[in-house]
Description:
The structure holds two protein chains of two kinds. By secondary structure, chain A is of the alpha/beta class. Chain A is 37% helix and 13% strand. In chain A, helix 2 (39-56) packs across helix 13, helix 3 packs across helix 13 and helix 6 crosses helix 13. Chain B is α/β, with parallel strands linked by helices. Chain B has two domains: 6-59 and 380-426, Urease, subunit C, domain 1, CATH 2.30.40.10; 62-368, Alpha-Beta Barrel (TIM Barrel). Chain B is built from 13 helices and 20 strands. At the A-B interface, helix 1 and helix 5 of A face helix 7 of B.
Amino acid sequence: xxxxxxxxxxxxxxxxxxxxxxxxxxxxxxxxxxxxxxxxxxxxxxxxxxxxxxxxxxxxxxxxxxxxxxxxxxxxxxxxxxxxxxxxxxxxxxxxxxxxxxxxxxxxxxxxxxxxxxxxxxxxxxxxxxxxxxxxxxxxxxxxxxxxxxxxxxxxxxxxxxxxxxxxxxxxxxxxxxxxxxxxxxxxxxxxxxxxxxxxxxxxxxxxxxxxxxxxxxxxxxxxxxxxxxxxxxxxxxxxxxxxxxxxxxxxxxxxxxxxxxxxxxxxxxxxxxxxxxxxxxxxxxxxxxxxxxxxxxxxxxxxxxxxxxxxxxxxxxxxxxxxxxxxxxxxxxxxxxxxx
Amino acid sequence: xxxxxxxxxxxxxxxxxxxxxxxxxxxxxxxxxxxxxxxxxxxxxxxxxxxxxxxxxxxxxxxxxxxxxxxxxxxxxxxxxxxxxxxxxxxxxxxxxxxxxxxxxxxxxxxxxxxxxxxxxxxxxxxxxxxxxxxxxxxxxxxxxxxxxxxxxxxxxxxxxxxxxxxxxxxxxxxxxxxxxxxxxxxxxxxxxxxxxxxxxxxxxxxxxxxxxxxxxxxxxxxxxxxxxxxxxxxxxxxxxxxxxxxxxxxxxxxxxxxxxxxxxxxxxxxxxxxxxxxxxxxxxxxxxxxxxxxxxxxxxxxxxxxxxxxxxxxxxxxxxxxxxxxxxxxxxxxxxxxxxxxxxxxxxxxxxxxxxxxxxxxxxxxxxxxxxxxxxxxxxxxxxxxxxxxxxxxxxxxxxxxxxxxxxxxxxxxxxxxxxxxxxxxx
Lengths: 341, 428
C-alpha cells in the first residue's frame, strides 16, 4: 500500500472502526459492535449476565452497582422491547434513567445528532444508549462524546445490534452448552437489512461456532456476505438441514413494496418456518427470533409458541445482558475522569 | 511581481507533453504570453525581466482541472470563486472547469454572464464553465445549448444528475453535436445506486452501509455508448470508478468512437477499505471501490484509455461531515492534492513524467477544446514550477481552500508547487 507511514499519523485512516471500544487496558469502554472483540470479552459478558439472571429472579430485583450514575436512552427509531429492557437493566443497577423520545425531540426540529449529544452531555450523563437509523451512528457518538462517557449501541442502521447478539448467545449457551464448536446455526430471512444478523454472525464466529449459515433469496442478501464467515443457502430446507439453532429474522412489510419479494404469501411458502419445515432441523433444535414477530409472515404461530421456541427466554436474557454490559463499561470508566469536550 | 511585465525562467527541466518536450530550457514570458523557449536565453534579450532560477526544478504547463466546484453562486458558505481560485493557483492549477450544478443551475446564458462577471472581479485563475445539458439538470427538456455556447460554455453536462429517459439523452446528444459541443457525462443509474453511500461489497456489508454496485456506473456507460455509436456524438465520461466501466470505454475507443474519460485522483489511491473507520472524508460518489478497480484505473491511465485526472473538488463546511457516515455530504476538497497525488504515481512507477503531466494539462485541454495545456511559443503563459525533491505533509493549516474536507491529511508528499504563473503573472 501507499505511504504506510503517512497513514499511521492520521487518527482516522487505517484505524479499524471497533478499536475505540476498548480503553488502554483492553477493557470494554463502549459497546458498539461485536466485531473485533475477543472471545474473552464475549465470555465475560455472558458470565456476568448469567450472574445477573439470578438477581432478576429475586423478589427485590435491584443491585446498587450504578447508584448515582445517569444513563440516557436516546432512541431515534421506534422500539418497545429494546428500549424497555435497557431501561429495566439500568434501573435494576440503581442508575437514574433518562428516556429521550425522538419523535417529540429536537431532532425533528433539525438539531443534529452531535448537538443533541452535546446538550445531553451537559446534563452530566454517564452513558448514552443509542439507537439510530444510520449505520455508524454509535461510533460517531463514541468518537465525539466526552472521554468519561460510555456509548452502548442499541442498533445502528444495518450495521450492528451487539446486545441483541449477546442475549442470543446467552440463550444458545443456556440451551446448548458452552461449546459452540459442535453447533450448526442457521439465520433465516432479511439478512440485507439486518443489524441483528451481522452482530450474530460476528458473535458466533468469535465463539468458534461449528457452522454458520444464512438462508434467504439473493434479494435479501448483502454483497459478499460469505466473507463474514458464513455459508449461503437459498433454500430453507437445505439451509436448516440438521441445524441445532434456527434464528428467524423479522421481515419488514416495506420490503414487498421495494420489489425485493413478489409477495408475503410466496415468502412464507418459501422461507416461513412452519411445523413442517422445522422438521428439517435437528429434533432438539431451538427456534429463536429477535422480535417483534410477524406471525404467518416468517414464522407459524404454533412454532413461535411451540416447545422448541426460546423466544421468551431471549427477552428475559435481554435484561441480564444489558445489565452486564452497562456494569462492565461504566465499571471501567468509573475510575476515569476526563474533561468535557 | 515584475514591473517589467516580463519573466524569464532559467534552466528548469521543461516537461511539455503536447510538444513532446522534456529538456532543460529557458522560458521567456512577456505580456502574458510565452515569447521564447530555448536552451539559453541571453540576458540582453531578456532585458529587465524578472528572473526565476529553476535549476533542479520542473516546469510544466499550468494544470487544467476538469471538474472543480467553486460553490458560487448558491453555496458560498462552503466556498467561493475567490477562495477556491486562490487555492488552485497556489496548487499549480491555472484553469478550472466548473460543472453546471450551481444554484441557479448554469442552464441559461444569464447565469454564465453572472459567473463570468464574478470571475472577472474575484478569480485568481482561469475558469471555464460547462452548461447544463438539460433544463435545471432535470433530464426532461433540452437546455438552450447554442445560447450557452455563445455565452462561453465550453461543453454541456448534466453534472452528477442522471438522465433516466433514454430518449431525452438521445436528443440531447444529437442537439449538442449539431452545435459541435462535447457532452460531459457522469454515468450513474439512480435506481441501482438507490441512495447508497459505499461500494456494494464486503466492506459495505460489514459496516451495514447501503451499497452502490459497480453496475450502477457501467450499465449507464453501456447504454450511452450504444447511443453514441448510432449518433456519432463527442462524449466525455467523467469520474469513472469501476474496472468494468474501463473495459467498455476501452472497447468504444478501439471502435473509433469519440469517447474520452477521466478519473478523480482520489480513486487512484483510496479503496473501500479506507471506509473501515466510518471516515466520512472517504464518503465520495461514485464510491471508493475495490483494490482491483483502483489498479485497473491506474493502468488505464498508463494505457491511454483514461486521458485525464481531475480533482473532483467538492468543498464542504465542517458540519457537512459531522454526522453518521450515511448522513454526511459526499465529496473531497481536492484542489491541493491533485498535482502531488498524480506525481506520486510517477514515484510509484505507475506513470511516466510525460504521462502524468499530460493527464493534467494537454489531455484536459483537448477534451475541453481550449487552446491551453502546452508551452508553445505564443501561447498564454500558464505554468507551474515544481520542486521534485521537497518533502512536505498535508495539514489543515496548509490547505488554502476554504474547505478542509480531505482524507489525505497527514499524507507525505515529495513534490511541491514552488511557483504558479497565470497569464504571465507570477502568483506564487
